[in-house]
Amino acid sequence: MARAAFSGAFLAFALAYTLLAFGLPMMIESGQIGPGFFPRILGTMLVVVSLYSVIRDIREPADEDTSSDHWGTVGLVTVITIAFIAMLSILGALVAMVLFMFVTLYVLNRQGMIANVVLSVLLPVSLYLLFDVWLNTTLPRGILALFSG
Amino acid sequence: MDVFADLIYGFSVALSPVNLLYLAIGVLVGMVVGVMPGLGASAGIAILLPLTFSMDPTSAIVMLAAIYYGAMFGGTITSVLINTPGESSTVASTFDGYPLAQQGRAGPALVLCAVGSFVAGTIGLILLTVLAPAFARLAQSFGPSETFLVVMIGLLTLVVIAGGKWRYGVISALFGFTLATVGVDLGSGDQRYTFGSPELITGINFIPVAIGLFGIGELLYTLHQGEHTEERGLFRVSGRGPELWPKREDWSESGGPMARGSLLGFVVGTIPGAGATVASLMSYSLEKTISQTPERFGKGALPGLVGPESSNNAASTGSMVPLLTLGIPGSASTAVLLGAFLLWGLQPGPLLMTQNPEFAWGLIGSMYLGNVMLVVLNVFAIPLFANIARIPARIMVPIVIVLCTIGTFSVNGSIVETWIMLGCGVIGFFMKLYGYSPAATVIALVLGPLAEETLRQSLIISGGGLSIFYTRSMSLLLLIIIGLLIAAPLALSLYRRRSTREDR
User: Fold this and answer.
1) Mind giving me the DSSP string for B289-342?
2) Cβ separation B225–A6 shorter than 8 A
3) φ and ψ at B18, to 5 degrees?
4) Which residues from chain B sit within 8 angstroms of residue A123, using beta carbons?
5) Tens of pLDDT along A110-121?
6) How far apart are CA B407 and CA B422, in angstroms?
């Protein structure tokens, strides 16, 4: 059923996309093909195929076992990652990375806490040096900016 | 011959100390990535692409191509040693590779893989050098209608051959195309699907999507499979000594498969949409079919390992042909490479070989050198790389998530793109779970603008109708090919249904 729901998600997306596509003009003043042309074709095709897919998914028995004991972990790590990205600009890249590493390693690797702590500091610092110093890309400073002034 | 002069020039570019360094780094990184189960060449290239932005395009593409090759061989190592393909192109290597390892013959098996890959790379390079100019000339005769049809062929081939349910493949591809329409429409200058966001005006960048689908998606899938709870066992490949090196019979047994695999692989690779994975599976079938002792297959038959290994390498070389001459990628990895080309302002196509010869031939030359490096590295460093596979998933997952996130952010400093990456990560996870095709999505995303543009131009040329697609002989030929591609699986399933009915 979850499989059908995924197809259903595509169907919902397709419907929204196609609806908006029909709001775009097919022709522009010079008589050329307008911006609405390709999206309308794509959207309509996607609606048709995803609708077909939803129906087939509901009717057919699943031939592959997609059950797992670990859905909770998948969801948890996803949520932690969401928090990580949300904190990037607030706490700054370095602090956010350290926190993320520590929390995730705590969830996944509880038995190796010493290694977790070491890794939680080592990796972010190395990455920060790699990106910020060597490659000269700007990573968010966040609260570090308060300290460096 | 003119082409060989170009090739020598390419080697001279590739042999510059800087590029050699990047080549070495790329091969090493690629092998590490390939050895880690879950992450494949496409993920490795996508994740490391942001790091190459400060580099010269030629050096960057040398490194990325090296990662591609390195990852393929890294995938071989895990396929043979722990029966876990690190790459989809090395799935066929598990069939006979793992039994060989179980019999204690992992050393000779891996050496023959390295040599087979090298031979295939050499043959592939010769074929590429000879054929690329011919392909480029053919590509020059292509008009918008042909280009559009080739894009369609590429995606169709991917969908048809990848197996799984075709409706999932089509949805994946269409989804990629819709993502490509976000941004400013080239024809009219109007904005589409930007919802007033300044970030989306330039469209959806393929890097966050690729990193999300291939990187984060794979990682979430790894968790779903419970790999973070597994303990990795120790295995040993003896470093030196008689167990490492193949026996004489092994060599003679492998010669044929190497040659056949190379030729088959190269041909398959040149077909847009078909790449190393298809080539390796076809080679396995071929070797098993023509073997005098087919019953040995699946129990440690060397031809069943060497053939696919050679062909997936030759296919990688072969897939450079449509990539460089037409700009049509044959796989997820080459799609990411294509995206990289476009980012650097390099337009793949017939002009690439003539306008940027140092890039095109430098790439080709370095691919070969990468092959050489692989053989040398692997013969001496296999145990080292094999041990990297032992890093538990539960430690690897957070490390790679951080790498993906920071890497994505560093591309444009855009938090929106980082969110897109995560969103695609979740989508990619479900796609992998249910058998959709993230590769089709990325290819469609990268080729979307080209597809729309060529379709538009074709329609303009034929005055609003579809006549151009059948009045031009080349287009007609391509249309027939498309028809065959669609018809073949249908015919096959009908035939299968009829023969099972008759059996009753």
Assistant:
1) HH-S-GGGTTS--THHHHHHHHHHHHHHHHHHHHHHHT---SSHHHHHHHHHHH
2) no
3) -60, -50
4) 399, 402
5) 777 888 888 888
6) 12
Does an H or E element contain B183, and which?
A: strand B183-184
- Touching check for B117 and chain A: CB below 8 Å? no
The burial class, CB within 10 Å (0-12 / 13-18 / 19+), for B482 is middle
Closest Cα in chain B, distance from residue A11 (Å): 10
Closest Cα partner for B358 from B4, B7, B1? B7
**Which stretches of chain A are DSSP H helices?**
2-21, 37-59, 71-91, 93-108, 113-128, 144-148
Task: Flag if B178 and A46 touch (Cβ within 8 Å).
Answer: yes
Q: How confident is the model at residue B27 (pLDDT cuts 50, 70, 90)?
A: confident
Q: Specify burial of residue B146 (Cβ count, 10 A radius: 0-12, 13-18, 19+).
A: buried
Q: The complex's ipTM?
A: 0.89
Cα dihedral sign, A67-A72-A73-A74: positive
Contacts of B419 in chain A (CB under 8 A): 85
Torsion of CA B156, B272, B214, A53, to 10 degrees: 0
Beta bridge partners of B192: B183
Of B324, B316, B331, B317, whose CA–CA distance to B274 is shortest? B331
pLDDT in tens, B280-306: 888 888 888 888 887 888 788 888 899
Contacting residues of A for B412, CB less than 8 Å apart? none
Residues of A in contact with B48 (CB under 8 A): none
**What pTM, to 2 d.p., does this model score?**
0.81
pLDDT per residue as tens digits for the range B85-124: 767 788 888 888 888 877 777 778 888 888 888 889 889 8
Q: Which two tokens stand for residue B69?
A: 């090759």
